Structure formats: structure tokens, C-alpha cells
Amino acid sequence: MDSPKPKRAREKEVTEAGEKVDVSVIMPVHNAALWLEECLQSILNQDFTGSMELSVFDDASTDDSRKMLENWREKLKTKNISLKISGHNSAQPKGVGYAKNQAISQSCGQYLCFQDADDVMKPQRIQLQHQVALLHPDSLIGCRVERIPEGSTERYTRWINTLTQEQLSTQVFTSHGPTVIMPTWFCSRMCFDKVGQFDERGKGVPEDLLFFYQSLRQGLGVTRVDQCLLVYRYHEKAATHSVSEDTIWRLRVDFLQERVLTQWESFTIWNAGKQGRKLYRSLSPANQKKVKAFCDVDENKIQKGFYTYEESKERPKPKIPVLHYKEASAPFIICVKLDMTGGEFEENLTSLQLKEGRDYYHFN
User: Fold this and answer.
1) pTM above 0.70, yes or no
2) What is the DSSP string of 289-346?
3) Domain count, the chain
4) Residue-wise pLDDT tens digits, 110-126
5) How far apart are CA 230 and CA 144, in angstroms?
């Protein structure tokens, strides 16, 4: 094996002394033995030329995760990647948010690269995201992904990979969550410190979405390396499955009201069906009064003429007109799922020549 270059040797000494390194890979671990070998090998294979460390917090694993990590210490050391491991052995894990915060607090990188223990980095991931982060020090940086097993969450994966740079900021209210998904995040420590720590309430709490929304409130940007830099694994044990749809829905509604509806005097809800009516009912009374109409393409809904909010305590009960989308006026909150109508909905929307982020926002 070739001897490391002098520069990298000095970087190693700096890392071991506990001083700053360029990038800390932040990895929470809970019973990840099944995937760790592949994940750690991908970290070892990074072509990043700066200094690196791997900071791991073991959140009460009961398998061989901790032992496997320790066995990788010398391998990582050959590439001048130092390894920091801490954890706890409580009866129950404390959650992903807590584990991430602990891994970050013990790290010393100027930049943070978030890595899930069940995913795999492509060799150029850190190098390319670090380059973008240097140009965008006040942004969360993401990337495109390859989903495995192939074909799992097909629509979601397509959405992740095809959003335009502008849509990374405009489609933040959709049901998918952050427009740059947490397993691809890369940011400066300055960004993280500005936003604050992850929520530590544990299982069932979408700590990534909460952090993402708070980062936008703090004025941080969001951008993406338009290359596939991560193999993103789907499996039933993933922490994301513990978060209820109702929890995500409420967070999205509240953020929509805070960021958009406070700026609008009135608007139209595109979808007079179940999802549109649910959104209407979820709004504050003040924002319900701003809904001037529903619009749709379903003639049966349009012929009824109105949606009556039967649960309202007002008398008479609110009756909101239901129009054909061509007769409705912007701005719109769109509650129609994308990529579900063979392109028909997308063609209808395009025909109106509206601008996303000004004339409409997607909610579903």
C-alpha cells in the first residue's frame, strides 16, 4: 500500500488531537449490523481529498453493530478517517433525533455529512457535496438517489430525482416531506448551529421535517447535486415508518398557513374531493374564510355547485362554490397528487400558464 501523502498525514494528526477536520460523517446507529459492512465500505471508498472523520452514536443496539464498528477502526485509519463512537445501553433507544445530536456534538468537522447506516455512499458523494457547500455555505445540500430494492417507492423516488432547483423551495408542502431527503443532507456546521438541534421526542416524531422547516424559517437555502450520490435503501424497519400520516399532515398545514396563506387575501383549492375538503377543514377559521372556491374536472362535483361545511358552527353554514378549473382564478393550493393521471392533470395545469411559487403551490 502506498504511504499517505504528508498533507493527509498531518490532517490525521489534527483529527486525532480533536481539532477541526473538513467533514464529519454523522451516523446514528440502532441494530444496523445487517447493513453496516456495505455502508462502512462506502465511506472508506470516498475519493474526498480533505480530512474526514466518522462520528457514530449507537442508540441501544442489541445486535453486533457496536462490535462491527470497532472492527472497522483500523481499516478507516488506513485512509486517515478517524472514528468516534459513543452510545448507551438503555432498555429502549432514545430515537434518531437524539442519536444525531449526540453524534454531532462529539464531532469536530466544519461540514456535516449525514449518513444512514442502512444506505450506501457513491465514491464521489462527499467530494461533490463539499464543493457545492463551499459555494452555498447557508444551504442544505442534497443529491439524487438510487432506490433499492429497484422499483420500491417508484413515484417518490422519481419525485426526489426530478425536482428542479426552484421546486426544491416551492414543493416543501407536499406529502413527501423535505424536498432534499434527510439521508442525502450535507451542510456547514454553521448551518446546523443556526437551526438548532434535532427534535429528541423519539419514535413517531419526524425530526427531519421539523428541522427542514426550521431551516427555512431561519432563511437557509436548499440545493442539490444533480448526480446520484447515494443508494437509498427501502425496508420495513426504517424509522420513517413510525411517523403517522396525521402528524405529517398537521405539520404541513401549519407551515403552509405560516409561509403562504398569511400572504394571500383569497385563494382556490384545486380538488373538490376528499383531499381538498380535508385541507379546507384543517385550516384556521381565518384561512377558511379566504377560500373563494374549489375547482375540479369532475362534472358531478361541479354540477352540485357548492361544498357545504357541515361541521361548521357558523350559521348559516359556509357554502363554497365548486368550479371547473378553467373558470377558477389563481392563486391555487393544489391537492391533486402528481404523476397519477397519466399526465392529464399536469397538462391541465400547464395550460393555465401559471408560475409555481407565485400563482400556485402543491400540497399533495
Assistant:
1) yes
2) TTEEEEEES-HHHHHH-EEE-TT--SSSPPEEEEEETTT--S-EEE-S-TT-STTHHH
3) 2
4) 999 999 999 999 999 99
5) 7
Predicted confidence (pLDDT) at residue 257 exceeds the cutoff of 90: yes
Q: What is the 3-state secondary structure (H, E, C) of 243-273?
A: CCHHHHHHHHHHHHHHHCHHHCCCEEEECCC
Cis, bond preceding 123 (omega within 30 deg of 0): no
pLDDT band at 15 (very low <50, low <70, confident <90, very high): very low
Q: Residue 93: which of 204, 193, 177 has the closest Cα? A: 204
Separation of CA 30 from chain center: 20
Q: What is the pLDDT of residue 239?
A: 57
Residues 276 and 219 in one domain: no
Nearest CA among 29, 13, 184, 200 for reference residue 103: 29
Q: What are phi and psi of 87, to 5 degrees?
A: 170, -170
In a domain, 251, yes or no: no
What is the spatial distance between Cα 96 and Cα 152, in angstroms, rounded to a whole number? 23
Return d(Cα 296, Cα 269) in angstroms, integer. Answer: 9
More confident residue, 10 or 291: 291
Is 104:55 a contact under the CB 8 Å cutoff? yes
Q: What is the CATH number of the domain that holds 30?
A: 3.90.550.10
Segments of the chain assigned E as strands: 21-29, 52-59, 81-88, 109-114, 120-121, 139-148, 186-188, 221-233, 267-270, 291-296, 306-308, 319-324, 332-334, 360-362
Is the domain of 231 the same as that of 297? no
User: What pLDDT does 240 receive?
Assistant: 59
The domain in which residue 273 lies consists of 260-362
Whether 249 is covered by a domain: the verdict is: no
- Radius of gyration from C-alpha coordinates of the chain: 23
* pLDDT at residue number 209: 96
Q: Is residue 261's pLDDT more than 90?
A: yes
**pLDDT at residue 203, as a whole number:** 87
